Amino acid sequence: MKKEFTKQESYEKLKKLSRVITKIISVLQVIMIVGASICLIASILGFLGFGLGWAEAIYEKYPKMAKWEVDYNADFFDISFTSEKISLETLYNEGLLNKMLLGVAINTTIGILQCALIFVALTLFKPLFKTINNSESPFTYEILNKLKFAFIIVTIIALYNSVFVGIIVALFLACIYFMYMYGVKMQEDEDQTL
Questions:
Q1: How far apart are alpha carbons 185 and 44 in whole angstroms?
Q2: What is the mean pLDDT of each run of 10 residues along the chain (194 residues)?
């Protein structure tokens, strides 16, 4: 048998979920700051190492490293290697160790940007859930406006990953937005009749 919830019980559950999501967002924001910091350090070391030739100097100092294998994807450099296991000795003999370090630096710089974008998105979502938790009703124009802004951010992130997925996400979120707008109008009508 299905349990029926009153309007107030449903909203209390939504408020509780909003508090939980706000806490999760706070934790994720800290994780993004730590991730961006690690990427920043790796990026700085990568660019310095590339500029100063550290990779080859370290390789020459520790010859046992010759047998180490790394995943090497040379898309950035138009080199004949594609993502495959390759020994450091081969990279050294081809003069590519420092270029590999440059690839690490470029990828970690991209990692900084990704962490920053996710942090900004989380920062923009947090007020939405705080407002839901503090409002008397989930159907207010303030929440509707924050929801619209959050949906735009999600759509942009989805479009960044894939145009097709971005279009599907945009249509899905637009449908949810208009259903929510309908709920706001119904709430407004109910408030006027009381």
A1: 53
A2: 76 90 96 96 89 79 72 51 65 76 86 89 88 85 88 85 88 92 88 77
The interaxial angle of helices 97-134 and 54-61, nearest 10 deg, is 120
Q: Are residues 37 and 112 in the same domain?
A: yes
Burial class (CB in 10 A: 0-12, 13-18, 19+), 96: buried
pTM, two decimals, is 0.71
User: Rounded to an integer, what distance in angstroms lies between the CA atom of residue 115 and that of residue 40?
Assistant: 11
User: Is the domain of 14 the same as that of 109?
Assistant: yes
Q: Are 98 and 32 in contact (CB under 8 A)?
A: no
Whether residues 100 and 145 fall in one domain? no
Q: Which residues contact 137 (CB under 8 A, 6 or more apart)?
A: 11, 187
Would 4 be classed as within a structural domain?
yes
Final residue of a structural domain among 82, 100, 125? 125
Structural domain of residue 8, as residue ranges?
1-125
Distances (CA, A) of 110 to 18, 104, 128: 31, 10, 28
- Residue 69 zone, left/alpha/beta (φ > 0; ψ -120 to 50; rest): beta
Domain count, the chain: 2
DSSP class of 170: H
Q: Where are the beta strands (DSSP E) in 33-179?
A: 69-72, 84-87
134 exposure class (CB count in 10 Å sphere: 0-12, 13-18, 19+): exposed
Residue 22's pLDDT is what? Answer: 94
